[in-house]
Amino acid sequence: MEYDIKDKIEWTVIFLTEFGKRHGLTLKQAFNYLLRYKGINFVEQHYDYLHTQSFVSAVDDLTQYCHKLGGGIV
Questions:
Q1: Residue ranges covered by each domain of the chain
Q2: Predicted model pTM
Q3: Three-state DSSP class for residue 51
């Protein structure tokens, strides 16, 4: 399914902001952490699933994923 790029970008920025809030990070810190531990790729590959979940659930999933790849945030 194709998604409107504007909607996808807006959702992703809000999601990264929520990830940062949960873990006490700025948006830039959250982005850098997720880039380093492949979280950005996870969001891109699984957007169709993630955007249908609550932010709480999606942040939990992404936190777990990055932790498995060596990220220190749990």
A1: 5-68
A2: 0.91
A3: coil
